[in-house]
Amino acid sequence: MKSRLVIRAGVALAGVALLAACSGPTGTNTQNTQNNSSSQASGDLKVAVITHGTAGDAFWSVVKVGAEDAGKQLGVGVTYNSDGDPGAQAKLIDNAVSQKVGGIVVSMANPDALKTSIENAVKAGIPVITINSGSAKSAEFGAMAHVGQEESIAGEEAGKKLKAAGKTKLLCVIHEAGNSGLNQRCDGARTGFGGAVENLQVDISNPTDIEARIKAKLQSDTAVDGVLALNPQVAVNAASAIKGASSKAQVATFDLNADVVGSIKSGEVLFAVDQQQYQQGYLPIVMLKLFKDNANTLGGGKPVLTGPGFVDKSNVDKVAEYAKNGKR
Fold first, then answer.
1. pTM of the predicted model, to two decimals?
2. What CA–CA distance (Å, rounded) separates 36 from 89?
C-alpha cells in the first residue's frame, strides 16, 4: 500500500511542477461525432489518445476531458479517438504510428487484439502509455507505463463492502463481452464477497434489454439481494429493474456519473467504486510531456494507480460538485 501511495504522490508532484512552469491554456477543440474523435492542435508534442469507449459514454467523456485539459495546460496537441471494436481500435493505433505522433495513450480492453499495433508503435520509437485496462500486458507489449486501477483488487474491495452491508447473494452484471477487465472485477468481487456470486451478461448498447434481463433474474431468484454493476448506466438500469421486480436487492456500481451521484444521495445505490478516470486521461499527457522534455518516467514498472476509491453517502456531496463539471 505504501508503494502505491508513493507512486501517486510522485505523479501529483510532477504534474504540479510541470503546470507551474507552463503558460495558460492554448489551442482549440474540433469534434467529428461520426468518428467519435476530437482534436486539439497545439504544441510541439502531438499525442494520440485511443480508447475502446463508445460514443456518448459518460465514463469515457471524462477521460477525454482529462486528456484535453492536460493538453491545453501543457501546450501538447491531443487527438482523441475511440472505437469499441478491437480491430478498429488497432487500426487507429496504426494510423497514429503512420502520422508519426510523439506519443500514444491507449486502453486495452482486448490486449491481444492490440498487441501487434502497440509493438509496432514502440518499434517506431513512439512512447506508449496504456490506461484503464490491460495492465498485465502493458510492460510485455513495450509500454513505458500503465495508468489505472487494478480491477481484481477493486472488485475484491467492492465484494468486501457488499458483504459488510449484509448481502448474501450477489449478481455481477458484465456489459461488454470480451472485456478482460470486467471479468477481473467480478472475479475479485467473488473473492472479497466470499459468498454466492453469479455473473449476468448484458449488452451496454441496449439499456431496455439490460433492465429486462436484470428484472427477470431478480424475479426468478429472490435470494439475490445485491447487484454489482460495472458501469454507471447499468447501475441506473439495475435500480429501475429492482423496482420493477419488487425486489429488496440493493445496487452498488463501478464508476460515477451525475445519475449515480443522485442515486447514492437517494439511497438507490449503496456506493460507487471510483477509479477517478479524469486522471487516466490527464496523467499520461503529463507523463509523456515529462518524458519528452526531461526523460522522466513514473511508476518504476508498476501501475500508476488512480483507484479504487469509494463514493457513498459520507462523501457524495463533495464529489457531486465535480461530477457536475464532467470531471468525476
1. 0.77
2. 12
Positive or negative CA dihedral for 134, 258, 284, 75?
positive
Amino acid at 146: H
d(CA 194, CA 160): 8
Q: Which domains does the chain have, with CATH numbers?
A: 2-149+275-309 (3.40.50.2300), 151-274 (3.40.50.2300)
Phi, psi of 242 (to 5 degrees): -65, -40
Cα dihedral sign for 59, 63, 64, 69? positive
Cα distance between the two ends of the chain: 23
In angstroms, the CA 70 to CA 57 distance is: 20
What are the distances in angstroms from CA 41 to CA 63, 72, 304?
18, 9, 27
Dihedral sign, CA of 320, 321, 324, 325? Answer: negative
State how beta strands 304-305 and 145-148 pair.
parallel
The sign of the torsion formed by the CA atoms of 129, 254, 192, 12 equals positive
Q: 181-217: per-residue pLDDT in tens?
A: 899 999 999 999 998 999 999 999 999 999 999 999 9
Residue 259, φ and ψ in degrees, nearest 5: -65, -40
Torsion sign across C-alpha atoms 8, 12, 18, 24: positive
Q: How many CB atoms lie within 10 A of CB 324?
A: 11
For 308, the grid coordinates are 479504487
Strands ordered across the beta sheet of 77-82:
29-32, 37-40, 77-82, 46-51, 103-107, 128-131, 145-148, 304-305
